[in-house]
Amino acid sequence: MTALFQRSRAVVCGAALLASGLFSLSATAGLLEKGRSEGLTAGIANEQPYAYLGTDGQPTGANIEVLKAILAPLGITRISTPITDFGALVPGLAAKRFDLIGAGLFITPARCKVIAYSNPVTRSGGAFIVKAGNPLKLHSLKDVAENGQVRLATQPGSHQVQEAKDSGIATANVVLFDKDNEALAALEAGRVEVVYFPDAEIIGLLKKANSATVERALPFQQIPDAQGQPTWNYHAYGLPKGDPAFAQAFNEQLARLRASGELLKILQKYGYTENELPPADVTAEQRCGA
């Protein structure tokens, strides 16, 4: 009886340990495991040069290529890219409608309360598109604010909305468009006087438009910081909160990609230069506390 009891006890304990292990695995499983077995979904806003559908209907863009180069060494090769409005990306990730954000997304403290981020991939300043010849002489957000009659087009949910507000531009003079090409069309039609987006997006938008009626406003004065120096925004991938293993693995691969020079090679295909690479020691954690 004693031997039978001991064998029964061993079986029960073994089963309990197995169940505990399975529970632990299930409890800790995250995007690394999901990505390797099922693939991942990366929400995009269909905007150049970040992440968009090419002429063949396939997802492409700087963020898409970099994302594939980061995930492939982690054993994740299947990536689907549902398209949504830019302003719905952060709420969509928070609601788990997709696994991460593959669009160009600035790191901001407000967004850091809702989602996590990878470390920065690029840095960016702002830029204007204006009518050819820049008849209103708009070279900064301050110029727009001081005019009082200028209508500025940008995108809902973007960092540019807050920058316009902080620069003193009246809310009534900020006109929001879900798509950057819609904002450009409004400028061409005379419904706004200036379009404001990150510089990389402005470059891509002008290239796509190929129109002699509009141009980039140069020079352009970036928003100064407290020391009077130009401020930069930092693009990164939006990640879900509560998955530190995935974030760590993701950032390690991003660092390797940059150190090898491959990150810059990918970005250069989309009009970026070395100037758009952020300092290597800038992290998402630092920017979230900014």
UniProtKB/TrEMBL annotation:
Record-annotated Solute-binding protein family 3/N-terminal domain positions: 39-274
UniProt key word tRNA processing: no
InterPro entries in UniProt: Ectoine_EhuB, Solute-binding_3/MltF_N
Keywords tagged on the record: Signal
Signal peptide: 1-29
NCBIfam families, sorted: ectoine_ehuB (TIGR02995)
PANTHER family in the cross-refs: ARGININE-BINDING EXTRACELLULAR PROTEIN ARTP, MEMBRANE-BOUND LYTIC MUREIN TRANSGLYCOSYLASE F
Family in the record: Belongs to the bacterial solute-binding protein 3 family.
Record protein name field: Ectoine/hydroxyectoine ABC transporter substrate-binding protein EhuB
